[in-house]
UniProtKB/TrEMBL annotation:
Parts forming coiled coils: none
Organism: Pseudomicrostroma glucosiphilum
Family: Belongs to the metallo-dependent hydrolases superfamily. Hydantoinase/dihydropyrimidinase family.
EC number(s) per entry: 3.5.2.2
UniProt keyword Nucleotide-binding, yes or no: no
Name of the protein in question: dihydropyrimidinase
Length: 546
């Protein structure tokens, strides 16, 4: 009986702590042993993968992926529909070196059938099962209501039976946001159940007010999405959320931090020893407000391809400021916020044109009036009409589904722009992309490390000396999206192998795995914060009596 199924040789193995040349022996989907060199007897009968001196790292863990999700980010009950399902999303993730993704199971506040959070999770789990997944996956539950009976009876079940130990709360979006008192209700329930709380921090009232001011001045082209959400919007909300978290002693993670001001709030809270964590994403290091004017003309609706919330920072200077927070440890995790919408799909970015035409109440003269009673969230527009509408009509940024794709480019962008430039060390790269998400989301040490007994989830890069830098094009990618925000970006390496529990899923430019391979991951509690009473006991700051 061979000692190992697979051995990886000649790899520069990187963990969140160290880098060294090791061989890795894998048996039954787990890491069995690491050694400077295995004996020839040990290697007998096993498959050998030669890393040829390249980096070998724990597989990427993407803590922020939207698949199969209807997202009502606009002001009415219609919205967009994510174009990737678990097949196309996990395929794209694997091709980019990701071995586990945490997706969202989103409660629809407007649908009474969604009152039950368990029902919500079951609905999304069925979506994943209906296609299968190439890589392992888990769910955060998005909570959009504060029903006390549901929180009390269902959160413990989600944690114990489903291993769903994280929730996401919104401070913006008409149909998803919680008021401050609702945030407090849910945060207390989260604390009692050790549920890691993700916060989308933007001041929804201020965004609505600014949007009204902009539209009164006819400033509705995609570019003005950014002006409806200047950095103060995120800075104010993150500041408020830190205070609320402190009050009820509930650790929080800010998702997709996009402004140096908000990052500074996190830094300041962390320096007071508070368990406040922050995620950031490649869009905040690559795009600026100028990208919302990128295509053809400043008013061209194609610029809606770059709309996400929070918007990218105003200028390149902001990228440099954010890089400092990446290097100095303020950011905890690097995720994609992969939120895919197509430009040739009426339920994608064009919703911003269709909804606007509808809100003009027939002024369009083409008979399309989405403001009329609608029984589904979807826009029923014949494909041939869509390009005609897009060419002729003005759209409004407020109706554009927020989000951009990036699950596949998440690791390669940071590798080229962070690791190879020396901004961050290889170990910090692993910490941000794998080890910290594993700890934060209760998967460590099953995932996020290369210890004996851990899942053999690995990404092996190309040997640097022989890799030819290339300009990224959407045709390289495996998602179901008709563009990438990073078109033309130079990349200086790419994952050569992606392995999930001992099976190669991506090898030398090809998907070689099976859709039946990806497993649902039942998770435990956050293991990042371990200090007892990190919020202190001062009654001026903390309601310890709650
Ligand atoms: N981030 C974004 O623009 N879209 C995804 C939905 C959200 O998380 O806000
Ligand atoms: Zn969000």
């Amino acid at each position: 009986m061979p000692r190992f199924d697979t051995v990886i040789v000649n790899g520069l193995v990187v963990t969140a702590a160290d880098s060294a040349y090791y061989n890795i022996g894998i048996k039954d989907g787990k890491i069995e042993a690491l050694a400077r060199e295995f004996s020839s007897a040990d290697l007998e009968g096993c498959e050998i993968i030669d890393a040829e001196g390249a980096y070998v790292m724990p597989g990427g863990i993407d803590g922020h992926v939207h698949l199969c999700q209807d997202l009502k980010t606009g002001p009415n009950k219609l919205g967009g529909r994510c174009s990737d399902n678990f097949e196309t999303g996990s395929r794209s993730a694997a091709a980019g070196g990701t071995t586990t993704m945490v997706n969202f199971a989103s409660q629809d506040r407007l649908d009474e059938a969604d009152r039950s959070l368990i029902g919500v999770v079951q609905r999304y789990a069925a979506r994943a099962q209906s296609t299968g997944s190439y890589i392992d996956y888990a769910f955060h539950v998005i909570i959009t209501r504060n029903d006390p009976d549901v929180l009390q009876s269902e959160l413990p079940v989600l944690v114990k039976e489903w291993g769903i130990t994280s929730c996401k709360l919104f401070m913006t979006y008409d149909t998803m946001r919680l008021t401050d008192r609702q945030l407090l209700d849910v945060m207390v329930a989260a604390r009692k159940n050790s549920v890691t709380t993700l916060i989308h921090a933007e001041n929804g009232d201020a965004i609505e007010w600014l949007t009204e001011q902009l539209e009164a001045r006819d400033m509705i082209a995609p570019y003005y999405h950014a002006l409806s959400r200047p950095p103060l919007i995120e800075a104010e909300a993150s500041n408020r959320a830190i205070a609320l978290a402190q009050l009820v002693q509930n650790p929080i993670l800010f998702v997709h931090i996009g402004s140096p001001m908000a990052a500074q709030n996190v830094r300041e809270a962390q320096s007071r020893g508070l368990p406040i964590y922050a995620e950031t994403c490649p869009q905040y290091f690559n795009l600026t407000w100028q990208d919302l004017k990128r295509f053809h003309s400043p008013t061209c609706f194609e610029n809606s391809k770059m709309i996400c919330s929070p918007p990218p920072p105003a200028e390149k200077n902001d990228h440099e400021a954010l890089q400092r927070y990446l290097a100095n440890g303020t950011f905890t995790i690097w995720s994609s916020d992969h939120c895919p919408f197509r430009y040739d799909d009426p339920d994608g970015k064009p919703a911003g044109v269709l909804e606007h035409a509808g809100s003009m109440q027939g002024e369009s003269g083409d008979g399309h009036n989405p403001a009329a009673p609608c029984t589904s969230v979807y826009h029923e527009v014949p494909k041939e009409d869509l390009s005609r509408l897009l060419a002729r009509k003005m759209g409004h940024f407020k109706h554009v589904p927020n989000g951009i794709p990036g699950v596949e480019t998440r690791l390669p962008l940071l590798f080229s722009q962070g690791l190879l430039t020396g901004l961050i060390s290889p170990s910090r790269f692993v910490e941000l992309t794998s080890t910290n998400p594993a700890k934060l989301y209760g998967m460590y040490p099953q995932k996020g490390c290369l210890m004996p007994g851990s899942d053999a989830d690995l990404v092996i890069w190309h040997p640097q000396a022989t890799f030819k830098p290339f300009a990224l094009s959407n045709s390289h990618l495996h998602h179901n999206v008709d563009y990438t925000p990073y078109e033309g970006q130079t990349l200086s390496n790419w994952p050569r192998y992606t392995m999930v529990r001992g099976k190669l899923i991506w090898s030398n430019g090809k998907i070689v795995g099976q859709l039946s391979h990806g497993n649902f991951v039942k998770r435990g509690p956050n293991s990042l914060h371990q200090r007892p009473q990190p919020f202190g006991t001062d009654l001026r700051n903390v309601a310890t009596w709650l």
